[in-house]
Write a structure and sequence with these properties.
With about 900 residues, this protein is of the alpha+beta class. Helices cover about 50% and strands about 20% of the residues. The strands form five sheets. Strands 15, 16, 17, 18, 19, 20 and 21 form a seven-stranded mixed sheet that branches. Strands 6-5-9-8-7 form a five-stranded antiparallel sheet. A five-stranded antiparallel sheet has the order 11-10-14-13-12, sandwiched between helices. The longest helix is centred in the first third of the chain and has 56 residues, at about 30-85. The radius of gyration is 51 Å and the shape is elongated.
């Protein structure tokens, strides 16, 4: 083959026309079209799916809410009818509910079995159970469950709505997708596809040798720049073609010879995955393989013959490598290196292991042969392993539980930071040592730990008691088997649950106190009724003896004696005095009952205006009658010194909480004074003082006092100076919490002599002082009658003895009395009778006084008696009870036992002219 022929074939290969690409997914126009259609389609489909899912959830939730509201309303409507077993009413209510299109069947149960069932004709036609839903709801009467109601509803209408929603969403997605796809295809075709096709056609012509072919793309964007660069490239190629052809012809013979020898060497070194290079003394690449070119992101041809400093991205690294190469050449010794390279483009590091060997060529030139292995992945794996270990160590050390692991011989392998803190043993002292020697408290569990390792079953030991320097500590100990390949052992977790155990004790104690409070309230209410009978009978007896009552005078004359003689006999025998003592004792017992009710009941009224001095007095009365307090110390022997400021303002507070605060302080102080055997005159100093916008309360005792260390911790939860089992340490912490909740402060100070002083500050209400605030009266609705007129009185009372006493008292007053045992009987009497006044007991079975009053005030059936004055009678005489009665429509409020004089005055006040 001649050089001229070889040159012609080379030129022919360079200018060989390119094959036109047929339709393929690799074609840019096809790709752009697919993108124009695919992206909007994907977005719209996702939007359609989201819309269907969201609307479906909304429709399902609407059906659930509708059915929930329907069954709650149906339960409320059926409560009275089911309680009275009124089948007709139940049927009417249920059939009205069945008119709802979704409801197919309604079933009513009493407490034991199915009571009534109603269903729509469509119910039997529904064969698919997935198309129906069943919900149940209890039927309550006066907050007591008397049965339940079940609704069976269909989801056919819901499924139809969802189907319509899906159909409309699919149509919308298809229409929008077609519109957006067509618009994007047109835009992409005009802006990108056509110019690119023109450039492709021009480049193909130039590639076939038509270097004069015009390029007709004139734009100011990247495509225009590409067209300009293509024109410049075409002209440069045209200029270089002639000179390139001459050079090709000159070197063609040499190239053919070298190609054969180099092809075998190139094939061998390119097949090696590691980087192989040959450099001369100046650091110029003489030979490189494909791996070197790939690492430097270039080609073998671009590297061959160039200095390393010219192609290196790190000049400092290139200088160091050149120095190493020259040292290897000069010393003639092999050099092994571990280097790190930072890539500026990706901000990553690459690690290389390089070995360099010196050589001398036949012509005397010296150089270095090197092989470099990329160990970046190995190094990264090593670093990741270190990070993972550190991460796991940090997790274990951050755990709130003490964790330590053991091998099969129960030697400690791992010991976290919490274990160091709890047990006071460092990891260095614990690891590789036998558990029984390191932690002696774990010796009782060693057998269980061995069983866990053998069987693979965990063991749990809750609330283990340990005595430490800080006191008794409760710990939960859990032993887990360590599962892994060729690894046997156990992991032990120790949790300090002291706070949790103490909290459980506090909850149990609180539940006990709530139960005792409820029992005390119930007993107080039951005591009040016979107490009312005793007091009112004593008052009636005294009035009959002391007063000039015609009936009494007539009865005395019938037995041949005068009233003066009866009174003289009663005076000499002390019977009048005894009746007075009975009445006074009843008043005292009534006051104690009222204080007990006030303290024991839950306070739902919130903050109200209160006189702190009165609350202190009520708490003192309650403390005197407290059983535990009397058993530990006779409270009546404690001297009470009162220093109350009459001008102290009222305070906004919750009565029961404030009484609990005072009671806890008084009880603790009394118990402390009991312990001081040398104390002969135990005394409380109670002070209430006005301090601007605050009220200052002091409770001082002359007991033993306390040391400073105890005083600083006295308000901490669970801190107590009492023996184990004698107290929870929560009394004073609750005092502080309650006072802070009411916006106040509390301090405890040790007196200079003996005893302690507890000081409270509470925010004063924005009103006048307690002494200046006028007593409020409830002005009843006036009735059209003359003063002293004989009244028609309806007495509504469930206690027989109270009915009889009230009837006797009212008869003596000259009034006509009608009695009713409960609210329902009273309502029946009011339908056909008119009464001037109603005395209404609040707590009654069947229908209480509050509900009865609401019916009288609001129902059209009692229009003629709507303005009749109603006086409430109850054993509960709390402020919030009074508010409830007045809000229900009552005109006045009297506490049991009813004082005859107060009752007489109330009746006279109601007999006023409008």
């Amino acid at each position: 083959m001649t050089a001229q022929r070889v040159g012609q074939e080379s030129r022919h290969n360079i200018l060989m026309p390119l094959k036109r690409k047929e339709f393929s997914l690799r074609n840019l126009p096809v790709q752009l079209s697919l993108i124009a259609i695919g992206i909007p389609t994907l977005v719209l489909v996702l939007f359609g799916v989201f819309r269907i899912h969201t609307q479906t959830n909304i429709l399902e939730n609407e059906l659930k809410i509708t059915l929930k509201n329907e069954i709650v309303q149906l339960s409320a409507s059926l409560s009275t009818a089911l309680f009275n077993f009124d089948d007709e009413t139940c049927k009417v209510i249920s059939e009205a509910a069945l008119k709802k299109s979704e409801i197919l069947k309604i079933t009513v149960w009493d407490l034991e079995q199915e009571y009534l069932s109603f269903q729509d004709d469509f119910f039997t036609m529904v064969g698919n159970k997935s198309e129906i839903r069943t919900i149940e709801y209890p039927i309550l009467f006066k907050n007591e469950k008397i049965g339940k109601v079940q609704i069976v509803a269909t989801t056919i209408f819901l499924d139809a709505s969802i189907a319509r929603l899906k159909k409309s969403s699919v149509i919308q997605v298809i229409v929008l997708d077609l519109i957006l796809g067509l618009v994007l295809i047109v835009v992409l075709n005009i802006r990108f596809v056509r110019p690119l096709q023109d450039l492709q056609q021009s480049s193909e012509k130039i590639a076939t040798g038509q270097l004069d072919y015009p390029i007709n793309v004139h734009r100011n964007d990247e495509l225009g720049a590409l067209a300009d660069n293509l024109v410049m490239m075409r002209d440069a190629v045209k200029e270089k073609m002639d000179s390139l052809q001459s050079e090709v012809d000159q070197h063609q013979k040499t190239s053919i010879a070298l190609e054969k020898s180099e092809s075998f060497l190139r094939l061998i070194i390119d097949l090696i995955p590691h980087m192989i290079f040959v450099k001369n003394m100046d650091g110029r690449y003489l030979v490189v393989n494909q791996a070197v070119a790939y690492d430097l992101d270039t080609s073998v041809e671009a590297l061959t013959g160039r200095l390393h400093s010219e192609v290196s991205l790190d000049p400092e690294s290139a200088k160091k490598m050149l120095k190493d190469d020259q040292m290897v050449i000069e010393t003639g010794k092999t050099l092994s290196l571990l280097t790190e390279t930072h890539l500026a483009s990706t901000k990553e590091s690459k690690w290389y292991s390089t070995k360099k060997i010196p050589f001398t060529a036949p012509d005397g030139d010296k150089g270095v042969v090197g092989i470099t292995i990329d160990i970046t992945e190995l190094k990264q794996a090593e670093e990741e392993l270190k990070k993972t270990k550190n991460y796991i160590d940090n997790i274990i050390n951050s755990m709130p539980s003490a964790l330590f692991s053991l091998d099969r011989e129960l030697n400690i392998v791992l010991w976290n930071y919490k274990a160091e803190k709890i047990f006071g043993i460092t990891s260095g002292s614990a690891i590789n040592n036998y558990l029984g020697d390191v932690l002696k408290r774990m010796k009782p569990f060693l057998e269980n730990i061995n069983n866990t390792i053998k069987t693979g079953e965990p063991h749990y030991f809750p609330k283990q008691i340990t005595q430490t320097k800080e006191g008794i500590v409760y710990e939960d100990i859990t032993v887990y088997p360590l599962i892994g390949e060729s690894i046997e052992g156990a992991v032990i977790r120790v949790d300090d649950v002291t706070e949790h155990v103490r909290m459980e004790e506090m909850v149990v104690q609180s539940e006990k106190m709530l139960s005792i409070g409820g029992l005390a309230a119930g007993m107080a209410h039951e005591i009040n009724n016979p107490l009312a009978g005793m007091m009112q009978n004593a008052q009636v007896a005294m009035r009959r003896i002391q007063g000039e009552i015609p009936a009494s005078i007539q009865a005395a004359e019938e037995v041949g004696i005068s009233m003066d003689q009866i009174r003289e006999f009663m005076e000499k025998r002390g019977m009048i005095r005894q009746l007075g003592l009975i009445h006074e004792a009843g008043i005292r017992a009534s006051k104690i009952v009222q204080n007990m009710l006030s303290f024991s009941r839950k306070d739902f009224s919130g903050k109200t205006q209160q006189d702190i001095a009165d609350l202190l007095e009520q708490t003192l009365e309650l403390a005197k009658s407290d059983y535990d307090l009397k058993r530990k110390y006779d409270f009546k022997k404690i001297k009470i010194v009162r220093e109350f400021d009459e001008n102290a303002p009222l305070v906004m507070c919750e009565v029961s909480k404030m009484q609990q605060v005072f009671f806890n302080i008084l009880k603790n102080s009394a118990e402390a004074m009991q312990e001081l055997e040398t104390l002969t005159d135990p005394t409380f100093y109670l002070r209430v003082k006005s301090r601007g916008s605050f009220v200052r309360i002091e409770i001082e005792d002359n007991g033993p006092g306390m040391i400073e260390d105890i005083r600083k911790r006295i308000f901490e939860p669970f801190f107590t100076t009492k023996p184990v089992g004698k107290g929870t340490g929560l009394g004073l912490s609750i005092v502080k919490k309650l006072v802070i909740q009411m916006g106040g402060t509390v301090q405890l100070q040790r007196n200079e002599a003996n005893g302690t002083t507890v000081t409270f500050t509470l925010i004063a209400d924005k009103c006048e002082s307690a002494a200046a605030v006028p007593a409020t009266t409830n002005s009843p609705a006036p009735i059209l009658t003359s003063p002293g007129r004989r009244l028609s009185v309806l007495v509504v009372e469930d206690e027989l003895i109270n009915r009889q006493i009230l009837q006797a008292i009212l008869t003596k007053f000259g009034h006509q009395t009608t009695v009713a045992e409960d609210g329902r009987i009273a309502l029946e009497l009011l339908k056909s009778n008119y009464f001037d006044i109603i005395l209404m007991d609040v707590q009654m079975p069947e229908l209480d006084g509050i509900e009865t009053t609401k019916i009288i005030r609001t129902s059209p059936s009692y229009q003629h008696t709507r303005n009749v004055p109603i006086i409430a009678l109850t054993a509960y005489a709390m402020a919030d009870d009074k508010d409830k009665c007045l809000q229900a429509g009552m005109n006045n409020y009297l506490a049991k036992p009813v004082d005859i004089k107060i009752l007489e005055r109330s009746l006279k006040n109601l007999t006023t002219v409008n």
